[in-house]
Amino acid sequence: MKNTFVLLAVSAFIMTACYPPGGEKEGLEEPIAEIQEQTDYSAVPEKTVLLEGFELPSLGYSYNALEPSIDARTVYIHYEKHTKGYYNRFINAIKETNLEEMPLEEIMRNISRYDAGIRRNGGQYYNHKFYWENLSPESGEPSPALLAAIEKEFGSMEEFKKEFNDVARSRFASGWAWLTMGEDGSLFVSHTANEVNPLMDIAEYPGTPLLTIDVWEHAYYLKYQNKRPDYITAFWDVINWNAVNKRYTEAME
Prior knowledge:
By secondary structure, the protein is mainly α. The chain contains ten helices and five strands. The chain folds into two domains: 132 residues, Fe,Mn superoxide dismutase (SOD) domain (Helix Hairpins, Orthogonal Bundle); 109 residues, minor pseudopilin epsh fold, CATH 3.55.40.20.
């Protein structure tokens, strides 16, 4: 009985508290307890394409592939409900507008020109797409070039991880922490609120993002509750360094 009460309480919290500013719900329609019973967590989701040029890629791995770092139920709800909800609303917002022909990255770079619905849902679509791409059950390592850049900027990999962790922990309320390359090629760590990312022309610290962690509570609360630092520590075990290395190489070109 006690465990059932806790599950229902956490479910209610996640379904009511994790809405973006402005009141748009994040797409949660089923009780979390029911989702748990009905879902095959060993499945790999297929990509979604509602509009040519704007796809939501498959995870490339099963919902349970990131365990024990991130539990299967969180991955399922985060991807299928939150992420797809943002994606669906963004596509609906840009349909039959000139944005249909504009790359997502270009929309982000000019986000101040567009209304709140496009900014919020487009930003969260971009951020979540980016987040899932930099996660993998096969973590790998930073490339020699990226590692050298990290060591040059932060002193060592351990010092970089410490700064990244500190920034992610200290992000008040909902948001993201980022490793970003500035216009001068230097690396820095920063955090953003809600849907904002470093590509946006409204970002306090703009640049080319290389790595991110989602510190909205929907990303970790079912497993870690209020222990965000534990989630951040576990995040390092499932970073897709191949994706981060590729981003770094492309940013240097």
